[in-house]
Amino acid sequence: MPTPTESIRGLEIDFAELRKDVRLHDREFERLQLDLLRERLAVLEDRLSELRKSKEEADRRYWQFVVLFVGGLVTLAINLVVSFVRK
Fold first, then answer.
1. What burial class does residue 37 get, using C-beta atoms within 10 Å of its C-beta: 0-12 exposed, 13-18 middle, 19+ buried?
2. Rounded distance between C-alpha atoms, residue 39 and residue 1, angstroms
3. What is the mean pLDDT of residues 14-21?
4. pLDDT of 87 above 90
5. Which of 11, 12, 56, 67 has its CA 20 to 30 A from that of 37?
6. What is the pLDDT of residues 42-64, one digit of tens each?
7. 78-85: long-range contacts at Cβ-Cβ below 8 A with a sequence spacing of 24 or more?
8. Contact at 8 Å (CB) between 59 and 66?
9. Residue 4 confidence (pLDDT)
């Protein structure tokens, strides 16, 4: 039967090994979390890129509408001037 000192020494060794295992698992867990965060970041960057493209397209269409509307007003004004000049 081991003496109490030997038992304590054995428990200390077991405890040190367990702490080492816990540290290794913590590192692995942190690495996995980091990988997951990188994947999520990549997805968010893709979504942001799509939103930017969508906004640019909406802005382009808005200005096309404005130009078309102003062109219509100018055409109307010219037609009114021409019709008054002919009378």
1. exposed
2. 55
3. 92
4. no
5. 56
6. 999 999 999 999 999 999 999 99
7. none
8. no
9. 86
Question: 2: left (phi > 0), else alpha (psi -120 to 50), else beta?
Answer: beta
Length of the chain: 87
Kindly state the tokens that stand for 42.
Answer: 């990549």
* Per-residue pLDDT reduced to its tens digit, 59-79: 999 999 999 999 999 999 999
Consecutive H or E run containing 1: none
- AA identity, residue 49: S
CA distance 28 to 33: 9
Q: How many CB atoms lie within 10 A of CB 7?
A: 11
Q: Which of 37, 40, 17 is nearest to 29 (CA)?
A: 37
SS3 content of the chain, % helix, strand, coil (to 5): 95, 0, 5
